[in-house]
Design a protein that fits this description.
heterodimer; A: alpha/beta; seven-stranded parallel sheet; B: globular; RNase_P_p30 (chain A); Ribonuclease P protein subunit p30 (chain A); structural constituent of ribosome (chain A)
C-alpha cells in the first residue's frame, strides 16, 4: 500500500514555520512531503537556484504517525509559464534543474497546456484553481499526458480559505474530471500554516466533492503521488528503468526417472 | 430487521492554541460542523444531515469527538468536515481543524478503534518521556487499557496523564 504524500508545501524563508508544517504533516500521517519552490517569469528574470537539501534545513525529521519511519522530504520546482519562450529553460541542460526531485509546470494558456502535456519533460501539470479557466480542456492532450505518466494537480488550500475560490476549484476540477475520467489526479495542499493542512482521509473525501469515485479519490492521495515521485526519479537518473525479476525455475516432468546421481549432475 | 442505520464519525480536534481545549464543548463543535455543512452543501445538505445529527461523545483532554448521522447522508457530512476552520464558544474564537480518524457503523467499533489509537499515542509519548515518574505512569496506563464488558459512562479509553508533548 502506498503511503500518503502531500506534494505541495510552499517553501517560505522561515525555517521554524516549515518545521511546524512538517510536524503537523507527520502527525496527520503523511509519509512523504515535497517542498515547493515557485518560479514566476512575469516578474523580473529570476535565477534558478540549487535546491536546498532537506538534511541541512532539518536536522531531525519527525516520525510519521502510525509507522516507525521518518517522514521523507523531497524538493520540487514549479514554473509558472505564460509564454512559450519560458519553456526553453526546461529544454536547456542547466544543471540546477536536474537537481530537483519533482518538476511541475503551471500553464496559463491553451497552447502552453498542449505543449506541457505532449512534449515538455515534467512530472506534474498544475491546474489553476483560483480563477475561472481561460481555456477548455480538450481530450487529445489530456490523453497523451495520461499515456506519458504525467499527473494533474489540484490544490485545496484556497478552497478552505475562501468561498469564491471554492466555487472555482470545484468547477475547474469537475470539468477536468469529465475529460480525464479521474485518472492521474493528484490533490495537494498549498498550506502555508499548519492549520491549513488536512489529513489524508479528509483529502480523499474532498476528492469526492470534485467528482472522483471513492477508490479514485484515495488513489489521488497515495498511489498517484507515489507514481509521480517515481516518475521524477526516472527523469533524474536515466532514460528508462529496467526491472529484473527472477523467473521461477520450471520443473520439467520426465517420463523416465533419471537415477539420483545423474539428476544431481544435470541440475548443478 | 427494519431499523434506522447510522454512521458514527470519529474525529480529532487539532489546534495550535492550547486554550482551545477548554473551548471544546458539544454545542460548539455541533454548531461549527453544521455551519460548515451549510456553507458547502447549502440548505439541502444541512437539512439532510441534521436528521439524526448529534455529538455523541467528547473528550476535551485529547480532543476526540464522536459524531452521529444517518447512513444516507454521511458522505455529505464527511466531505464537509475539512471545511471546519474555527470553534466558537462564549464569544471566543479559536482556529482549529478536524482530522477524521474512523467511520463506523456502531459506537462499539469506534470505541475499539479509539482504544488502539490511544494506545499508539501513548507509545509515542513514551518515546518522548524524559522523567522516570512519567514513564512509569504511562506504562501502567498502557497495560491497563482494554475493552471491558461493563459499559461505563465515558467508555474505556485512556486520557493522557497530562503529559502532552504538543
Amino acid at each position: 500500500m502506498a503511503g500518503f504524500a502531500d506534494l505541495n508545501l510552499p517553501q517560505g524563508p522561515d525555517k521554524k514555520s516549515l518545521q511546524s508544517l512538517l510536524e503537523a504533516a507527520a502527525h496527520l500521517g503523511y509519509s512523504a512531503v515535497a517542498l515547493n519552490h515557485v518560479i514566476d517569469f512575469k516578474e523580473k528574470k529570476q535565477e534558478i537556484v540549487k535546491p536546498v537539501s532537506p538534511l541541512e534545513l532539518f536536522p531531525s525529521l519527525p516520525i510519521v504517525q502510525g509507522t516507525s519511519k521518518r517522514i521523507k522530504v523531497l524538493t520540487r520546482l514549479t514554473l509558472v509559464v505564460s509564454d512559450p519562450s519560458h519553456c526553453n529553460l526546461l529544454r536547456s541542460t542547466s544543471a540546477n534543474i536536474r537537481l530537483y526531485d519533482i518538476i511541475a509546470v503551471f500553464p496559463k494558456t491553451e497552447k502552453l497546456f498542449h505543449i506541457a502535456c505532449t512534449t515538455l519533460d515534467v512530472d506534474l501539470v498544475c491546474i489553476n484553481v483560483t480563477e475561472k479557466l481561460p481555456f477548455y480542456f480538450r481530450r487529445p492532450p489530456v490523453n497523451m499526458a495520461v499515456d506519458r505518466g504525467i499527473c494533474f494537480e489540484l490544490l485545496y488550500a484556497p478552497a478552505i480559505k475562501d468561498s469564491t475560490m471554492r466555487r472555482y476549484t470545484i468547477s475547474n476540477a469537475i470539468s477536468l474530471m469529465q475529460i480525464c475520467k479521474g485518472k492521474n489526479i493528484v490533490i495537494s495542499s498549498a498550506a502555508e500554516r499548519p492549520l491549513e493542512l488536512r489529513g489524508p482521509y479528509d483529502v480523499a473525501n474532498l476528492g469526492l466533492l470534485f467528482g472522483l469515485s471513492e477508490s479514485e479519490a484515495k488513489a489521488a492521495v497515495s498511489t498517484n503521488c507515489r507514481a509521480t515521485i517515481l516518475h521524477g526519479e526516472t527523469r533524474k537518473s536515466a532514460c528508462g528503468v529496467v526491472y529484473t525479476v527472477k523467473k521461477p525455475r520450471k520443473v520439467e516432468e520426465e517420463e523416465t526417472p533419471l537415477p539420483a546421481c545423474k539428476k544431481v549432475k544435470t541440475q548443478a | 430487521m427494519v431499523r434506522f442505520k447510522n454512521r458514527y464519525v470519529l474525529c480529532e480536534v487539532v489546534s495550535e492554541d492550547p486554550r482551545c481545549r477548554q473551548c471544546i464543548e458539544d454545542r460548539a463543535v455541533g454548531l461549527a460542523v453544521r455551519d460548515a455543512i451549510g456553507r458547502v452543501h447549502g440548505d439541502y445538505g444541512l437539512a439532510c444531515c441534521s436528521i439524526s445529527f448529534t455529538v455523541k461523545y467528547l473528550n476535551a483532554y485529547t480532543g476526540t469527538v464522536l459524531l452521529r448521522c444517518r447512513k444516507d447522508s454521511y458522505r455529505l457530512l464527511c466531505s464537509a468536515l475539512p471545511f471546519v476552520r474555527q470553534l466558537e464558544s462564549r464569544n471566543q474564537r479559536y482556529p482549529c481543524f478536524l482530522n477524521t480518524l474512523h467511520v463506523g457503523g456502531t459506537i462499539r467499533t469506534c470505541q475499539k478503534f479509539l482504544i488502539q489509537y490511544n494506545r499508539r499515542q501513548l507509545l509515542m509519548l513514551l518515546q518522548n518521556c524524559t522523567n522516570e515518574e512519567e514513564r512509569r505512569c504511562i506504562q501502567k496506563s498502557l497495560l491497563s487499557c482494554s475493552l471491558t464488558e461493563e459499559q461505563s459512562q465515558s467508555g474505556d479509553e485512556e486520557d493522557d496523564d497530562g503529559t502532552e508533548t504538543d
